[in-house]
C-alpha cells in the first residue's frame, strides 16, 4: 500500500518530538512529518537507530519505508539517541515506548517513566507530554505525580494509538478516530489540532476516558474473537458449520462482518497484555471483570484445542513432521510477539514433533523449528500441514502442489483460510475450525 496522497499542510507546522521508533512511534512520527510538522525522534535501541539513520525502516509495514524516506528527504524527520535533545525545543512530546505486561498482569510503566524522566528537565511548563503508549485508566494521574516529583510542571495528555499492524501507515494517515484526554484543556486542544490534517473525528475528554477508550477497544475486539472461537467450537460439537453460522451473524447490521473468523486465539503485542492489564487495573479499583477473565481463559484454551487437532490429525506428535504455514501473529506483519503460530510451534515441538515453518516475513529462532523458504518446502515430507497465520499468499496456494510433496494427508486450517473443496479435491483431508 503506498502512502496516501499529500494532506493539506497544517495551518501551523509544529516542532514535535516522538520518543520510541517502533510500530507506533515511527509511524506516528512519519505521519506527522507527512502532514507538515517537523519531528525529531528519540530511539534508545542503537541498532534500530543506526538503521533509521542509514535511511532504512527497521519495521516491515506497507508504505512505511517510503513515508520515512519522504520525511527525511523533506528535512522534517530526524532521529537521535538522546531523548532530551529530541524534546528540547518541541511543542509537544509524544511517548511511544513499550508498555509490556508486568507482575500480576499489571502494566509495566518503567519504559514510559524512563522516557519522561529523560525529558522532564528540558520541556516547558505547558508543553504537552503525550502518552501514545497504551496505558490503563489512572496512569496519567500517576505519571503527572511522577513528573511533579521531578519538578516538571508539563501537562500529561493521553492520545492512544489504534493502528493495526500490517496497515499502520493507512491507519495513522486516515484514522477512524483520534482520542485525546487530559485535565489540561489547552494541552488537549493543541494535541487535537496536530491531527487536523488527518480529517478524523476527534474525541476529547478526560485522561481516564482516553485511557479506558483504548483498553475498551482492545478488550471488545478480543472478546469478539473469543466469542467467535467459542461458537466455532460449539458448531463442531453440534454438527453445524461455523462458516454458515458466522455469515448469517455477519449479515445482521448490529453485528457486522469484521473480526468474525475463527482462529487459533488472539495474540500479538497488544490484545493479550492489554486485556490482562485491564483486568488487573479493574481489580485495583475493587472491580472484578469476570467477563474479561473468562475471555483470557477461553483464549488460552483455544491454543490447546488447535494443538489437539493437529495431534489427532497426525495420529500423535512424537516423531512427526508438522509443516507450519505462518509465524507472524497475523498476516501482513513480521511481528511474532505473542504469536499464536509461535505458541503452537512450541507446543508441537514440546510434544515431540519437528516443525518446518514458512512465513513470508516473520523469522524465529526456536529449538525444533526449521525455517524453510516457501510453503511447498514446509509441506515436503510433512505428516500434517498446519495453517497458523492468515497470509493472503497461503489462500492462493495450489493444494495439488502441497499434496504431491506431503507424507501424510492431513491439513489443519487454524484460520479457515483454504478452500476446503480444492484441498479435498487434491486428495488431502481438510480440518478447519468449526466445520
Ligand atoms: N504495535 C501495535 O500494533 C500497537 C498499536 C496500538 C498501540 N500500541 C502501543 O504502543 C506502545 C508501543 O508499541 P510498539 O508496538 O510501537 O512497540 P515497539 O517495541 O515496536 O517500539 C517501541 C520502541 O521504543 C523504544 N524505546 C524503549 N524505551 C525507550 C526510551 N526510553 N526512549 C526512546 N526509545 C525507547 C524501543 O527501542 C522501540 O524501538 C505500546 O504501549 C503498545 O501497547 C501498539
Short characterization:
The protein has 435 residues and is α/β, with parallel strands linked by helices. The chain has helices at residues 23-34, 46-53, 64-73, 83-87, 110-119, 139-149, 168-173, 185-194, 207-238, 242-250, 271-284, 290-314, 340-350, 375-379, 392-395, 399-405, 420-425; strands at residues 15-19, 38-42, 77-80, 92-95, 129-131, 156-158, 178-181, 202-205, 321-325, 354-358, 369-371, 384-387, 410-413, 429-431.
Structure commentary:
- The protein has 435 residues and is an alpha/beta fold.
- The protein has 2 domains: 15-204, NAD(P)-binding Rossmann-like Domain (Rossmann fold), CATH 3.40.50; 206-435, NAD(P)-binding Rossmann-like Domain (Rossmann fold), CATH 3.40.50.720.
- It is 43% helix and 13% strand.
- It contains 17 helices and 14 strands.
- The longest helix has 32 residues, at 207-238.
- The two termini are 34 Å apart.
- It binds nicotinamide-adenine-dinucleotide.
